[in-house]
Amino acid sequence: MAFDRPLALLSLLLLPAAVAAYVLARRQRARYAVRFTNVDVLRAVAPRSPSGRELATLALVLAVLALLLVGSARPSVTRLAPVDDATVLLVVDVSRSMLARDVPPTRLGAAKAAAQSFLDRAPKRIRVGIVTFAGDVSVTAFPTHDRALLQRSLATLGPFSAGRGGTAIGDALARAVELARDALAEPGEHPSAAGGAVGLGRTVTILFLSDGRQMRGLLQPEEGAALAQGAGIPVYTVALGTDRGEPRGQAPSGGFPGFGFNRTPDRRTLRAIARTTGGEYFAARSAKALTSAYSDLGSRLGRSERRTEVTFLFVAAAALGLVAATGLSRLWQPGLP
């Protein structure tokens, strides 16, 4: 919690002073009472030790004062708030190794299920686009709010939906950055001019999943990461797969006998991409871990931290406390009829 007027918190020092004044007033009443010699009258008028009810009322009043004094400092909290026109690009590796079954039912099947989970958790105001890559890069769905279209696009993902075999990580990142610029460009504006707008409130995020290492492409992964960094786009990377992969000699689902896969994800490269761009790295060695990561990101991406003033909460709580203190005082010490 932060305060716009932190010096106003010094007024809380008035609370100990109020308690001291209360104690002093009671002592003065006690000294005055001992001047009387009539024991019966003295017993009737002499101040008693404060009861539990009286102390409870006092504590409640002090709490009300404390709430008002803290509210005068204009407290605020930081929370995640949805960002208008936010765009998330799902970049999915669809190389043939995604047919490996070390992440059941297959790596590709687990990736599609996790992407579905992401769409379920992501706010409806977020536009989502889908880019697939293997040796080549393909745009499967341009950024859109149409969840039904995105679901159909995910269902069509296959190991041969992005051209020739291989893994072009750098080219996939570059195409995602280009797609983001195209999506953010105003009508009549050249796409390259939108690059600077990415970091000026129009939030774009890339969620990048791969199960292998760079094997093809014109750009190296670090070059693609540099493009994303220059555009102000964080890249959240997911390394999908275990170290064992598909046993050799075992046919993957939809594959060919004798061509098993044992490719492990290049975790070092994916971690470096996330670090360079200001994103986050996830290691998904199981379908459950992958779905959990995508679900978490679905509830986080497209939101940014914003400060919200909460003075009204302190004032409302103080008002309720004052009403309660007044009610208790009337209940425990009713006035004369």
Distance linking N and C termini = 48 Å
* Oligomerization state: single chain
Order of helices and strands: EHHHEEHEEHHEHEHEHEH
> Helix coverage percent of residues?
40-55%
According to CATH, what is the class of the largest domain? Alpha Beta
How many E-type strands?
A: 9
Average pLDDT figure: 79
> Which topology of the largest domain does CATH recognise?
Rossmann fold
| CATH H-level superfamily of the largest domain | von Willebrand factor, type A domain
Shape: elongated
Report the structural category: alpha/beta
The share of residues in extended strands comes to 15-25%
Number of helical stretches of at least 4 residues: 10
Largest sheet: 6 strands, mixed
Which tags fit this structure?
alpha/beta, 337 residues, three-stranded antiparallel beta sheet
Provide an overview of this structure.
The chain is of the alpha/beta class and 337 residues long. The chain folds into 2 domains: 2-78 and 310-332, no CATH class; 84-301, Rossmann fold (3-Layer(aba) Sandwich), CATH 3.40.50.410. It contains 10 helices and 9 strands. The chain starts with a strand and ends in a 5-residue tail after the last helix. Residues 197-201 and 251-260 have low confidence and may be disordered.
